[in-house]
Structures are given as structure tokens and as C-alpha cells.
Amino acid sequence: MKIISIQNNLGIPKYKQIIHSVEKAIEEENLKKGEKLPSVNKVCMEQSLSRDTVLQAYDEFKKRSNYLCYSW
């Protein structure tokens, strides 16, 4: 199941869309505590995003809490 969804026409920064997608997956219990987020490279390839964009979103999670483990 894809947990990250990006829409180019929203006018919302893509890193914030990543954050929102993951938060939604947590709320809907599609992603549970201790589960890994998709790797940065996988998200970059699937969503046609730059590595910096994905890292910005993942770093934001790291700042917020240690709730999720994620892989690089």
C-alpha cells in the first residue's frame, strides 16, 4: 500500500504533502508505531521528487518525535 501521495496542482509544498500523507496513514492505522517509512530513494522514484524534498519531510518527523522509525 502506498502511504505517500503527492499532487502537483495543490499549491502546498511537496514536503508538507509527504508529512500530511504519513500523518493520515497513522490516523487510519495503515502505518503503526515502529513501522518503517518508505526509503527516501523509493519515495523519490515513485513520486518523481528530489531527494532534498523527501529528506526535508523525514527530518521534520525526526524533529517532532521518535514515533516512527524510517529507513534511508
UniProtKB/TrEMBL annotation:
Pfam families found in the cross-reference section: GntR (PF00392)
Keyword Signal attached: no
Gene3D superfamilies per record: Winged helix-like DNA-binding domain superfamily/Winged helix DNA-binding domain (1.10.10.10)
InterPro entries: Tscrpt_reg_HTH_GntR, WH-like_DNA-bd_sf, WH_DNA-bd_sf
Gene Ontology terms for molecular function: DNA binding; DNA-binding transcription factor activity
Superkingdom: Bacteria
Keywords noted in UniProt: DNA-binding, Transcription, Transcription regulation
Domain HTH gntR-type: 14-60
UniProt name for this protein: GntR family transcriptional regulator, arabinose operon transcriptional repressor/GntR family transcriptional regulator
